[in-house]
Amino acid sequence: MQALIDHLFNIKDLIPHGYCLSWSPALLWLHVGSDLLITLAYYSIPLMLVYFIRQRKDFPYPWLAAMFAGFIVACGTTHLLSAITIWMPLYWLDGLLKALTAIISIATAVLMVWIIPRALSRPSSAQLQAEIQQRKTAETAQHEAFDRLQKIAGQLPGMVFQFRLRADGSSCFPFASEAIRDIFELSPEDVREDASKAFALVHPDDYGSIGPAIRKSARNLTPWHHEYRLRFADGTERWLFGNALPQREEDGSMLWHGFVTDISERKRMEEKLHDSDALNVSILDSLTSRIAVLDAQGVIVAVNKAWRQFAKDNDLPESRQNMLGLNYLDICKNGCSQPHCHEVNAAQAGIAAVLAGERETFNLEYPCHSPNQQRWFHMNVLPLQGSHRGVVVSHENITERKLMEDELKASEAKFRSIIEVSPVPMALNDEQWNITFLNQAFVQTFGYNVDDIPTVADWQSKAYPDPDYRRWVDTTWQSALKKTKQEQTDFPPMELAIRCNNNNIKTVLASAAAIHHDFAGVHLVIMYDITQRKQIEAKLNSIFNASVEGIITFDMSNIIISANAAVEAIFGYKPEDLVGCNINKLMPPASPKEMSDGDSSQAAESIGQIQEIEGIHKDGSAVPLDLSIAEFSIENEHYFTHIVRDVSLRKHREQQDKEHLDELAHVTRLGLMGEMASGIAHEVNQPLAAISSYTQVSLNLINTEHPDLVKLAEILYKTQQQALRAGRIIHRMREFVKSHAKQRSTANINNLIHEAVGLCIDELKQNDIRLTFELSNNLPTIYVDHVQIEQVIINLIRNSVDALLNLPEKRQRQLTIHSRLTLNNDIQVRVKDNGPGLDEEQQQKILTPFYTTKTDGMGMGLSISRSLIEAHEGTLHFNSHSGKGTTMYFTLPVRRKSGTR
Question: Which of 66, 316, 492, 727 would be 311's cystine partner, CB 3.0–4.6 Å?
């Protein structure tokens, strides 16, 4: 081995391949670079093949991939040696490696020739996909057939089944109807793979016979008929009768298709019949069905009481033995009317087939009308059990059921007629999505008839020409149908845009309902035309968004539902950003919800009234608003609408007007003080004169030899009181005439009246005017500017004084001031005099600015007084009759606990 290795790597007498290339650097590196790149590529390909095989474990020819990988690695190695032999003449190693490569290549080529036909015989991915699709289609069809079979089997009075006996002796029920739950108290799933649970219920005494009966049926391929019992865990027993037809399967198993019924009741009756004929007769007589027992020739051998009574009531022929011995078919002929002879023939054939053993049972519904009424009966024929051949024929009166069926058919006809005359477009489609009916409203609304749109697909292509919209409608509709079926809920209405036959677009609200019973599998589609409503909504939305007032709608939870474009100008928020937010984001927390929790009269007063509030701008600043609130309900859900107007400019102007009014009020107060100067001077002089007298007396006492200090202290105290009196008069005058910012606070109107009268009292005394107060006690407080209200009262008193000065000297001058609470819950103040009054011309102008009845007056007193009262949300009026005096009166709102009117 060592000699072989030495021989392979022996480079003696050999020259490198570079000599052949004349050691040209460009040519040399061209060869070397190309070989190395080829080597790198060849070495990477096997790695990819290995990765592919590891990922695709289902690849059927991994050994072929291994051969390819070996061949490619060998080729790559030859190129690597080609690069090495440029400098090292390892030609023996290179040659052997090329020989190995040739062997692997030939083997791979031979395998390819062998494998290609087999690879081509394997199915392609398209074929596999087609087979999968076919399998899915078959499974779907099988599932639908299974569902239909379950529904049909569910209507039968027993269990429909398939029973499979496998070659290894095991068994199962591939199919069992839902009746297995009532008969075996098992579910279909319990026996689908293994029938042992069902056989475990077989009565021990019957277990030994049921197996041989099954094997005999399988061996001879004859029908299986067997009666056996079940015993349950609670000890109860149940008799069953089973019959089935066998079928041999390709896998060697046997498959029976059959039917099992509960014959426990029949068995109990048979047991009782065996015990006593009398008991048998009594049981038969207790049954409401008409029952007759026929022998092998169709002769009646026994009847029950119901049969005999029926024959008697309908005058049917009777024998000496109570109809015993008569042929049954003859009696049927006498009872059936001639138009129904085919039912008689069917009954004869059916009974004969049961007697001959050709049929297990026979059932027939037939008319048996009497001269008095129409009746329907259901006949059931069963073979007699035991050694005697014959049949038992029972007749059950099904007239009531037939009448109900007729009523149902009439109801269905009425249903169709209602759909036909309904003004709402309606359509019916079946399970195959064929349109089976369109009412007249549908045809008139959309212009299509059944010939235009025979299928739902035709309808969709015409009604929804846009492919994307059509796809959305179909997907959403199918999803809603599926959800409705699964959750047993109503179909949610869908708003759809439909292109009519005349190319007009109609907007509809579509709904659907699955109709059961005879319309099983049919969908009723109802389409309410809401085109006009949508047009009205569009107009209302345009008005809504064009309104200069902000309109905000929110629910009882204060969550905003909608807002118009004007809201952005008022609050700085885009309407879509406000939807879902709390209304308190824009306005104070006081809301209709809070009002609804409180006084109902207060809530009713706020709804529909304009209120002044402050809103909150996006930048945090306050926005003065006029607010109006509306309330509405939709489907027992309450909503509120806030209509707001930005009154910032109006508020600014009002503030300017108020400031101007304050300035005018200040000027008029100064004027009043000038007019009242003599009276006020007299009032001030009185305490000053008293002070002068008291000080003179004090000086005299002090200058005596023994001053009386007690008397001196008394005189000094009186001097102090007169000084305080003068100070109060001057303070009151200063407070009245000084210019001050508007300040409001609570006040008692009677106190303000007394304060105002205090400034005028000396003038009233000087002019010999008798002042009378008629003030109501316990009046509510008011929220006012004290000085301004006193100014109004003084103005009214001064006007009355001027009027009273024009009375003759012999007449008593009287001035009366009233205060009271009105029925409107306002405070009213009246200043009444017995002066000469005002004529009609003066009454028309007395409250206008710059009108005066005085020779030196400015005509601003009453005008400013009215402005001051109105600024307090009150009113100022007068009553006057020439020669009978004048009454000036004003009202002010009462201050409530909340601080608002």
Answer: 316
